[in-house]
Amino acid sequence: MPGVPQVGMPQVYLPQPQMPQVYLPQPQQPATPRMPYVAQPAMPQMPYVAPPQVTVPPVTLPATKSSNILLIAIICLVAFLAGAIVVYLLVRPR
Fold first, then answer.
1. DSSP readout, 25-80?
2. What's the pLDDT tens digit per position in 44-86?
C-alpha cells in the first residue's frame, strides 16, 4: 500500500576484512633431464568373444506364504463357528 511504511529488518552492509596477500618467491627447481619418447610396441588385439547366453527362469514367490494365509483364515473361521456353537448351546432354552 502506498501510505503504509514498510517494516522490516534494516540492512547493514559491513565491509569484509581482507587478509594481506603475501607473495613468496618460488624456489628454482633444477631442470630435470627429459627422456626421449620411445614408442611402445603395439599390443596384439584380442579377439572379441561374446559371453555365453544364460537363460534365467523368472523368480516366483514361494507358494508357502499364500497357503499359510489360507490356513490361518480357515482356522479363524472354524474358531468363530465353534464359539458360535458354544454360545448357542449356553443360551438356548431347555
1. PPPPPPPPPPPPP-PPPPPPPPPP-PPPP---PPP---THHHHHHHHHHHHHHHHH
2. 788 888 888 888 877 776 656 678 999 999 999 999 999 999 9
